[in-house]
Design a protein that fits this description.
About 25% of the residues lie in helices and about 35% in strands. It contains 4 helices and 11 strands. It has helices at about 5-15, 20-30, 60-65, 75-100; strands at about 35-40, 55, 110-115, 120-130, 135-140, 145, 155, 160-165, 175-185, 190-195, 205-210. The chain starts with 6 loop residues before the first helix and ends in a 5-residue tail after the last strand. It binds zinc ion.
Length: about 220
């Protein structure tokens, strides 16, 4: 016999999931809010305990309940697993951050100033025009360049990054740097920064070269 979930059970599931579909999340990390329904994990509509309920988008609810004979259908354990992962992610980060994780954190540095002194030091100052991040590694990549003591290690929005660079044969032409950071969502990302102080105004380029999601580790 079909037993409607109590309104308490229904509320618990809607709030815990924030109306995010457990299969959209589990299969492709899609944390978008979805129109959907409460599904019965064991496919028994008489069992409407919170533990047996799961919010699914309409498409996934249909797929889950139809159990095609050919393709391997979704299993209850699989669904429970994704649902529990979703709940703990929402609990851990809150839905704001969970939603933001879909689109990468905005990481952006602009050229604030650069000057070259006769002592052979390029005084490079960059400004954080994006979200806060922590620097894991920062180095000069062009031959003949070596980066002095740069700071700070953790950059809030609007903060300046000072990167004095020793130039072996001055004045400097194109200077390439590699920057590895960890953004607020926990992703490690790498950028290449190119500054050419010999051009006036200096040419500047900030380019993401890899994006590795290590948020779950
Ligand atoms: Zn879905």
């Amino acid at each position: 016999m079909r037993k409607k979930p109590t309104s308490e059970a229904e509320t618990t599931v809607l709030v815990s999931s924030r109306r995010r579909c457990a299969l959209c999340y589990g299969l492709r990390r899609d944390l978008g809010q979805k129109d959907g329904q409460l599904a019965h994990v064991d496919r028994n509509p008489a069992n409407s305990d919170v533990e047996n309920l799961c919010y699914l988008c309409f498409d996934h609810h249909n797929q889950y309940d139809s159990r095609p004979s050919q393709a391997k259908g979704f299993t209850p354990n699989e669904l429970r697993h994704y649902r529990n992962m979703l709940y703990s992610e929402i609990e851990r980060f809150g839905i704001d951050l969970a939603t933001h994780r879909q689109s990468s954190e905005r990481v952006f540095l602009t050229l604030e100033s650069n000057s070259y002194s006769s002592s052979g030091v390029l005084d490079l100052i960059l400004k954080n025009d994006g979200d806060p991040f922590n620097i894991q590694n920062f180095e000069a990549a062009s031959p003949g360049l070596s980066l002095g003591t740069w700071h700070p290690r953790s950059l809030s929005s609007g903060e300046l990054l000072r990167a004095p660079t020793n130039v072996a044969k001055g004045p400097p032409g194109e200077c390439i740097y590699h920057l590895k950071i960890r953004d607020r969502s926990g992703s490690t990302r790498s950028f290449q920064i190119t500054v050419d102080p010999s051009k006036s105004p200096a040419e500047y380029d900030f380019l993401e070269i890899t994006s590795t999601d290590s948020g779950s580790t």
